[in-house]
Amino acid sequence: MKRPAWNGAPPRDGEEAKERIIDAAMRCIDRRGAKTSLSEVAAELGVIRQTVYRYFPSTEELFSAVGYAAVNSYLDRLVAHLAGITEAGELAVEAMAYTIEQVPADPYLGLFLNLGESGNFSRGATSATAFAACRQAFARTDVDWAALGYTGDQLDELLEFLLRVLLSFADDPLPGRDGEQLRAFLRRWVTPAL
């Protein structure tokens, strides 16, 4: 016997449909990782593949949406990790090192970075939305950015600099450096920029 579409509870609108597809994709990724297919996501929702395609025309677009949905959760973890650091240079170094270490291990963000579309990721990571998310995360840290002269355009430029350096690590990770060696490298080159 065929089960009803959307497991008997159709979404109210397109936005709810997208959210439910992303949630279903996350559950499938938890089980199968990068091998997750749109067919599996459709089965999880009780819909046909064409329904998923209506909202996400490709697996890459769906995985990108999953990655963007995971960003807020990641930023909460990052801010918690940075709690108590009040020196700007050390916070920037630790934020970058933690991100370099943690993102590839995150099942959603790691998949997002490994889509083979680094140009698309780079454009997304330096978008106005990404800057706004970074600005909000940095505002939640224990560094008094305004007292250091980082407000408005100056803070945006600092975030852009840090994101661009971080993107270079995402694109080509440093082989053979452990956590302390990575932090020493970042302290040597990033801290003087602040």
UniProtKB/TrEMBL annotation:
Pfam families documented for this protein: TetR_N
Domain HTH tetR-type: 15-74
The entry's DNA-binding region: 37-56
Signal peptide boundaries: none
Keywords noted in UniProt: DNA-binding, Transcription, Transcription regulation
Annotated protein name in UniProt: TetR/AcrR family transcriptional regulator
Source species, domain of life: Bacteria
PANTHER family xref list: HTH-TYPE TRANSCRIPTIONAL REGULATOR BETI, HTH-TYPE TRANSCRIPTIONAL REGULATOR RUTR
Tagged with keyword Metal-binding: no
